[in-house]
Amino acid sequence: xxxxxxxxxxxxxxxxxxxxxxxxxxxxxxxxxxxxxxxxxxxxxxxxxxxxxxxxxxxxxxxxxxxxxxxxxxxxxxxxxxxxxxxxxxxxxxxxxxxxxxxxxxxxxxxxxxxxxxxxxxxxxxxxxxxxxxxxxxxxxxxxxxxxxxxxxxxxxxxxxxxxxxxxxxxxxxxxxxxxxxxxxxxxxxxxxxxxxxxxxxxxxxxxxxxxxxxxxxxxxxxxxxxxxxxxxxxxxxxxxxxxxxxxxxxxxxxxxxxxxxxxxxxxxxxxxxxxxxxxxxxxxxxxxxxxxxxxxxxxxxxxxxxxxxxxxxxxxxxxxxxxxxxxxxxxxxxxxxxxxxxxxxxxxxxxxxxxxxxxxxxxxxxxxxxxxxxxxxxxxxxxxxxxxxxxxxxxxxxxxxxxxxxxxxxxxxxxxxxxxxxxxxxxxxxxxxxxxxxxxxxxxxxxxxxxxxxxxxxxxxxxxxxxxxxxxxxxxxxxxxxxxxxxxxxxxxxxxxxxxxxxxxxxxxxxxxxxx
Length: 517
Prior knowledge:
Blueprint: H1 7-11, E1 15-19, H2 24-36, E2 42-47, H3 55-63, H4 69-74, E3 82-86, H5 98-107, E4 108-113, H6 124-131, H7 133-142, E5 150-154, E6 165-166, H8 177-186, H9 189-200, H10 206-221, E7 227-232, E8 234-236, H11 253-262, E9 268-269, E10 278-280, H12 281-298, E11 305-308, H13 318-331, E12 345-346, H14 349-373, H15 380-398, E13 403-404, H16 407-415, H17 418-423, H18 433-448, H19 456-486, H20 490-516
Parallel strand pairs: 1-2, 1-4, 2-3, 4-5, 5-7, 6-13, 7-11, 8-10, 9-12
């Protein structure tokens, strides 16, 4: 837009503050900022010590990961721009020491807040502490920053999943967030867990509920702060940047794909024709970067909300995911499969339960019995228990559809230059779902399951053997079942003999046909 700096120019010389940088989206966000905006002055990143690793060690491990290989080439001194700030969103004032707080308040002009618990079945107390009180502490810090131009808060498109049509605005919740915060401060876990179902109401879990609370708290408490809210839908692997199919966790569709590839997830409740509103991570982070640019340059009078979704822009269905997951895991199988991949979505709860019993639970017990016989650890029933606990939390989303309004997305695209639209592409109309899913399956194999792609020929041979074994097992089962039936029913016995004689006759004729040709 005329008179406005480009996105890269907007970030020139700026210092940023980022929470959630060790999370999936936070890593992709930091990488893109360092690579596409090389003249950024500094990135202050909030990190807490974890599992015996110091903040410096965690940052070093992050910046030396494969994700940052491209940055090393285009911006060799990238690591010097990243400054670790020891802290924790669970602590007052984010647990930041006075010296670090002074630096942040003096230098920073753009804030990205993506730290949150994304665990769907998190206990209410912890979910409120991280997702709601964490936002309250963010506001307290931002009000102290001297020259703040933009604050981008990452929410979720499903914060308002109790509505069929979700506009790009903040909705008022039934209970004021401050009352929820007060309750959490004095009630123990047991009491809150009893109230959780009543509190979340029509929403499926504490995650979507607390995210909605956080949005309203942010709207009420921001005052004159330049705040924008970005609502990605189901965040999946990267589409293109910094490399196709990159993902580092089992959350959301990645866990489903890993289970499908292993052959342990074969059916789940979902609408085959329903929208799988998946958004690639790099598209979501490109929007975050652009939303900060828009907020800092256009200075909107109201808090802009961006529904970062694909359903109304470039529809992709659960049926297409089922078909493509099967296609690409058969083409590029994982190294060790329990069974040949065969994913299916069904709207019928009865049919799903029957399949779970006969195609999941019973085989798991049989395989554990076999492990017992050969003197090895029994694991398959436990795997099934963990799998169905995870799958159940997702079935609310695979069996329902929403209409997300995207007016602000297109408004933002119109304000960008052609060059910026190319560099910071968040236009979901550009996604080729077939290409994306092939890279997603490969990324799940390579980055999450930690398998080497040069072992693909061996994995394909193993899958071929598994197909042969499965065919033999199925054939034996059919014969056994049929023989049980024919010993009890005279007509069935006669039919069996007829079919058997026909097969023998055909077999005898085959060599003659071969010689005639």
